[in-house]
């Protein structure tokens, strides 16, 4: 009986292990970037503050994300946006550093337009001052390779 018990417990562990792996797949695909992350996947979600770190972003934050992905350009599509007008700002740059050309700088409660970089690199920088925090932002991003979304190629 002990052997059967051992086999059963090994089998149970294996099933548990498989379930954990399956749970991790969508999580890694929809990568949730932490402040300061270097992002190199072909698609994902960038939410700030991250799930469980909110509901509002902290004061005096200075946070940036570097995108360096496969493909030829990156599409950034904001899905939520709530940043204190003029005092807290999100900067999107067409390249991988603070010195790269500015695609746009945004604050307030209006969704920024869909942005496309000219290369496979982008730099997002978020700063907040010492008063009034809001809900932050969330964006979907995916990589395009010569006009074709890598995400669609992989998904279908
Ligand atoms: Ca503020």
From TrEMBL:
UniProtKB keywords: Disulfide bond, Repeat, Signal
Signal peptide (residue range): 1-33
Pfam families xref list: CUB
CUB domain location: 35-144
Entry-linked SMART domains: CUB
Recorded coiled-coil stretches: none
Protein name per Swiss-Prot or TrEMBL: CUB domain-containing protein
Organism: Meganyctiphanes norvegica (Northern krill)
């Amino acid at each position: 009986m002990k052997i059967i018990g051992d086999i059963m417990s090994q089998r149970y562990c294996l099933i548990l292990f498989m379930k954990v792996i399956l749970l991790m797949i969508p999580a890694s695909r929809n990568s949730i970037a932490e402040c300061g992350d270097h992002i190199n996947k072909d698609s994902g979600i960038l939410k700030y503050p991250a799930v469980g770190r909110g509901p509002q972003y902290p004061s005096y934050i200075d946070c940036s994300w570097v995108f360096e992905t496969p493909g030829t350009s990156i599409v950034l599509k904001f899905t939520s946006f709530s940043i204190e007008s003029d005092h807290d700002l999100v900067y999107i740059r067409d390249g991988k550093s603070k010195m790269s050309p500015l695609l746009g700088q945004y604050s307030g409660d209006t969704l920024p337009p869909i942005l496309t970089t000219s290369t496979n690199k982008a730099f997002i920088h978020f700063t907040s001052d010492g008063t009034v925090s809001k809900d932050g932002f969330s964006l979907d991003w995916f990589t395009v390779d010569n006009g074709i979304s890598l995400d669609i190629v992989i998904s279908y």
